Amino acid sequence: MTPNAASSSGPSRRSFLTSTAVATAAVAVGSPLLAACGGGGQEGRKEGTTSGKEAAKILPAFVASSVVTPDIPAKNGSAAGFTRAIPTDRLKTSVPRTLGSGGKLTVMSPFWGTPPNGDNPYYTAMNKAVGVDVTWQNQDGVTYDQKLGAVLASSEIPDVVVVPGWNLMGRIPSAVNAKFADLGPYLSGDKVKDYPNLAAVPTEAWQRGIFGGQLRGIPMPAPYVTDIAPLYRKDLFAKKGYAVPGSPAEFLAWAKEATDAKSKLWACDDMKWTAFNVFGVLSGGDKALWWNLEGDKLVNRIETEQYLEALEWTRKLYAAGVVHPDAVQGKAGGDAGNRFTAGEVLVYNQNISDWWGKTAEQRTQNADFEMAAFDYFGPDGGDPTLWAVQPANIFTFVSKKASEQQVKDFLALCNFCAAPYGTKEFMLTAYGVEGTDYTVEKGLPVKTQQGVNEVNGAYDYTGNPAPYIAYPDLPEVTRGMVEWQQRMGAFTKKSSFFGLTVTEPNRWSNLADDFEQLEDDVVRGRKKISDVQQAVSDWRGRGGDGLRDWYRKLLDDNGSAD
């Protein structure tokens, strides 16, 4: 799992909003086994993937939005950046007429927290604006996989269902193919132009929405630049005169100097995920991205020297006593941020959205608090080799039993919610009803307590624009986050299965499940690098080589998405 997977808040383009924030980029967490696409196999499952010419027949045309111009254009796979709040009287319109028919839709979605009443002013205003009477079946996000499995196994499912990528395990992928509609007749090619905001969703995100050889999922787009950043206390670095380390050796030497356990100060928290990026290990979020064609051989990340080198360097940090004792004990990654803001650690790795989240949290408590993300370096201190993450990891589907009008109402809902920043539709979706859910203070929208409680989750999942970051309350953080993504994007490569949604055959789908625990044991000194090498050998014998042949055939038959 990525460091933020234990977080109690749910992933959403707006899940990190506080009273003064305007928007956030999507966050994809966890280690998903991703859904089925194309190929052959048992009914409803269809192991494999769809790419190349076959995908081109399915994918929507791309028409970039020109409604609002970002302050910082997207570059090298980054999000676009908006550093300023747009006054209400200058908001643009991206949905000039109501597309919904006034029909009804029931939507099941994960929700973290206490769901609001269904007749609240926010839901009422959204339904009126979209032209669709949506009834939300909000389910506990923590146990959503269990609820999802039960619902999809039943004969009756809601009209619309949100499926996070990390819940696509077990029988859920086959249920996706069996029970959700093909959206190709409504969206493929130029047909998507009937829904301009959806037409502006990047093609690589739509590629991820192909399940079972058909365009079934509305994707939540995300930047493909790694979302895990090494975050550091810029204020304390300046106070102590530290320079940001520029190589693994420099980092270890600095960490030994900076750690003062008697004063309850440690250089860092667990840095395993930073190590993977420093040493150029293939992306770890989606198991399809564990594979890459190197020369004529398909190689898995666990077979590489880079993987072992990253674990060994992280082990050295633990052995040197520079890692916070709570991390040594394996306490939840979400606590690392608290140790960081408390000044007990100077560096930790987390989703880059924490740069804004922690800054917004601390600015009312500690006026001197300042943090940033340092750039990744390579093993020798030169340029890093980074690997792209998937460009979408949350999907929304409509039932095969839905009528044609219900499908069109579903797309009307998705198109409205995919409105870009700076539009009236975005403002309603993100903030709700002015005067009830938010007020405007010093030019910035500020959520009321009612807005905090009600404008949270739900509509986030039914449509999203191209990736963006917009924190006008902290414009310097917005700029810092986007520019970091742009710099790191310049060193980012796409592996062989980037952008593809793949389901591994059941007999092999859990083959590598024990490696995360093994990694954690190795870096903490409980096991040795030789134990990893033995585990890799066992993995090959238990099916790893067979899985390699299966992936290679996918690549030979379908090609990559790029």
UniProtKB/TrEMBL annotation:
Residues 1-35 form the signal peptide. Its main location: other. SUPFAM superfamilies: Periplasmic binding protein-like II (SSF53850). It comes from the Bacteria. Keywords: Lipoprotein, Signal, Transport. It is found in: Cell envelope. Belongs to the bacterial solute-binding protein 1 family. This is Lipoprotein.
